[in-house]
TrEMBL record:
Pfam families: DUF5342. It comes from Lysinibacillus xylanilyticus. InterPro entries: UCP037692 (IPR017263). This is YheE family protein.
Length: 67
């Protein structure tokens, strides 16, 4: 389960899509960039079960950003 999920725009112009995200997963901190086409580019380590983590991130972004 993802904990302490946070996001902020990559660009000053908030109309441009792209976000910097960070969260904890299995007691490790991860960060990534969530691009306008839904691609996730990891900054550093890739979490285990990354496909499952990507699904959770997509759901959170849909809820928080696209709602």
């Amino acid at each position: 389960m993802i904990q302490h999920f946070s996001f902020k725009p990559l660009f000053e112009n908030s109309q441009l899509p792209g976000w910097s995200i960070s969260f904890f997963y299995q007691r490790e901190r991860y960060s990534a960039e969530y691009l306008k086409d839904g691609v996730i580019q990891w900054n550093g380590a890739i979490p285990p079960n990354d496909e499952d983590v990507k699904k959770m991130i997509h759901e959170l972004m849909l809820y928080h950003v696209y709602d």
